[in-house]
Amino acid sequence: MKEPAKKDEKEARKRKPALAALAGPQATAGWTFGFSLVVFSLGGWALDQWLDTSPLFLLVLGFLGAVGGFINLVETISPGTLFPSRRSLRKKASPKGEDALQPSRDEDSDANDQR
Questions:
Q1: pLDDT by residue (tens digit) across 91-110?
Q2: Nearest alpha-carbon partner for 86 in 110, 67, 68, 105
Q3: End-to-end CA distance of the chain
Q4: What is the pLDDT of residues 3-54, one digit of tens each?
Q5: Alpha-carbon gap, residue 14 to 17, rounded angstroms
Q6: What angle do CA 57, 60, 63 make, to 5 degrees?
Q7: Is 89 helix (H, G, I), strand (E, B) or coil?
Q8: CA neighbours within 13 Å on the CB side: how many for 91?
Q9: Rounded to whole angstroms, how far apart are CA atoms 115 and 106?
Q10: Helices 26-51 + 56-77 axis angle, to 10
Q11: Where along the chain do its domains lie?
């Protein structure tokens, strides 16, 4: 009797995607933000050491890394929030049959027009 139960569990695992697969690129967006901040700050520190201009480049490149990382974070999680031309990527990233984290504004207006 235990074999059918094991078989059902295996089938359920096959049908249910892993949590990381559902998150997709959103799972790495935070790491990308931190990585860009650290890399740009280290680059600024290295330039300051080389040019003896402490802390000018550290602050400038650290700020640029934070801004770039934040833009990447927001656009990865919700395409089209900062740059409206990327809204079309929402439709391509999530096919109609699958659940999406957040529908695009274009899809909302299409749904209202059909009613």
A1: 555 554 444 454 445 555 55
A2: 105
A3: 51
A4: 666 777 777 666 666 666 667 778 788 899 999 999 999 999 999 999 999 8
A5: 7
A6: 140
A7: helix
A8: 9
A9: 15
A10: 170
A11: 28-77, 86-115
